[in-house]
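Give me structure tokens for this 506-residue protein.
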Amino acid sequence: MNPLDDLARTDIDPALLAQVQALFAQQQSKLAEKDFKITALTHELAYYRRIRFGKASEALVGEQRLLFEETVEMDLAAIEEELEVEAPTKRKRTRAGRQPLPLALPRIEHRHEPASCQCGQCGADLVKIGEDVSEQLDVEPARFFVHRHIRPQYACRPCETVTAAPIPAAIIDGGMAAVGLLAWITACKYLDHLPLYRIEQIAARQGVPLARSTLAEWVGRIGVALQPLADRLAELLRQLACLHADETPVRQLDPGSGKTRHAYLWAYRSGVHDGGPPIVVFDYQISRAGAHARAFLQDWRGHLMVDDYVGYKALFTDGPTELACLAHIRRKFFDVHAASGSPAAEEALRHIAALYAIEQQGAGLDPPQRLALRQRLTVPALSDLHAWLLATQRTVAVGSSTAKAIDHALKRWPALVRYADSGSLPIDNNPVENAIRPIAIGKKNWLFTGSERAGRRAAAIQSLFATAKLNGLDPLGWLASVLERLPTCPNSQLGTLLPFPDFTQR
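Here you go.
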């Protein structure tokens, strides 16, 4: 029953009744508008949750998928926040279990005591029975400070001499930048992919003038200082029995024409089943010619995991042994199935999934145990896949996408199955592709390298940073320690500065 009808049957003043009716109508309009907004937000939330795991996300790969997922996560959070504001009593936000904050982080305690230590009802003294502790993660922006070095000078009057402590050796003699600042600038540029003008702006917001020309000079000098470490890293990499290789295009500025041209960052990574610390080395070259890979590997002989790029083919005529990437084979069948729903492609994906499931079983095994597992399970599974490929090849239309995927797999077959006869060879080239991915995403920030020299400097520093990350080291902390120790480190001890697990900041 409408309460306004009951009110109208009373002897209420007609003018007051009109005011009440107008106010009620206004409130009803606001409620209807709010209900409409809640309904719209609810439908939008359901839509974003659906596309988050739907076909739209599955069609994206690499950095596209990462950016898509970031955007969806932000939109979901925004919609849920709007719903919380619009209907705080109608829905309860579900929160995932929060991970504990790292114990190594410093803690700043804030104690919040009651306004009074007496009971507000009876006045008796309060007795502490426990405490509620919650933690929030915070961060300080780049904090600039000054190291002031004071070197007292002492004179000997009889000898007429002056004595003072020697000036410590530094990467940049007489420079005003401490190792922490140099490491931070280098990490900003090569880890966070920030151009120097953005680093200049960050410093300016803190009231510190750092001219781009000064930053550029420091980075150039650091690159020269770190080059011997990068060269040593490459030497160690070539001593290993199995390597991954891949390459990614970058743009290089051509000052004469004012345009950019293609250059390439070649990547080499140690095998994932090697016993030593993982190593990544980037080699910057101005083309994709296979001669660059031959020049880098020199007289190296071992197993090399690559894709089907023709530039590598000359290597295998009288040199390394070729390994083919199962992930590339799978990718071709996946593309066929995504485009046409081909049953044959779906069957190929099932065979390949079985091979990866076997690898998952052997993830924690040593090479002899992994070899035994592969001989027992992988070899028969590969035999089944090969027989299926041959049989299916005769049933699909020549020149079709499925036929091309099958032909590609069969062409690569001898190199594809070699891993099964070893316990230390990899199944695919994903490890080196993962090492390249941060650079592929970051180059959208820096757009191009300014010169071939700049590209080589970036490759050397990226090699050291990527290797540090693979070995669980903080690249910034590692570099700061190295820049402090490098000026007094003899060449024979350079290996102690490499970013390996036994690295210690002394």
